[in-house]
Amino acid sequence: MSAATVADSSPADADPAASIAKMRARIDEIDAAIIRLWQERAAISRQVGATRVANGGTRLVLSREREILDRYRTALGADGTQLALLILRAGRGPL
């Protein structure tokens, strides 16, 4: 279901409970995708850090983290900054 499909649903729908159930099911699908992508991203980020350390580099690259923070802040505002901080932390793994 696209955003347009959700937007096309109106309170005048014949069965509001069915409409809500359908929208909630889509939210659950989106949440599952976000969780899967979050875990995949964190695993890849930890691999990048381990590869950098194994090759004599630092685990973290602050300029790269700044790029990510800026990208999320630009797209999502202040909440984007908070989200980016959580995502970055998840990708660092144990110290």
Summarize the structure in words.
There is one protein chain. The protein is built from 4 helices and no strands. The chain is mainly alpha-helical and 95 residues long. It has one domain: Chorismate mutase (Chorismate Mutase Domain, subunit A, Up-down Bundle), CATH 1.20.59.10. α2 packs across α4 and α3 (62-76) runs antiparallel to α4. The radius of gyration is 19 Å and the shape is elongated. The model has no long low-confidence stretch (mean pLDDT 90).
How do you describe this structure in short?
This protein is mostly helical.
Outline the secondary-structure elements:
Layout: H1 3-8, H2 16-54, H3 62-76, H4 78-92
Helix pairs in contact: 2-4, 3-4
Mean pLDDT across residues: 90
Query: What is the CATH level 1 assignment?
Result: Mainly Alpha
> Compute the gyration radius: what is it?
19 Å
Order of helices and strands: HHHH
Helix content range of the residues, please? over 70%
Number of strands: 0
For the biggest sheet, the summary is: none
pLDDT < 50 stretches: none
Tally of alpha and pi helices:
4
In the CATH hierarchy, the architecture is Up-down Bundle
Structural class based on helices, strands and sheet pairing: mainly alpha
Q: Quote the distance from N terminus to C terminus.
A: 41 Å
Tell me the β content.
Answer: under 5%
CATH topology: Chorismate Mutase Domain, subunit A
Shape: elongated
- For CATH, the homologous superfamily is named as Chorismate mutase
How many domains? The number is 1
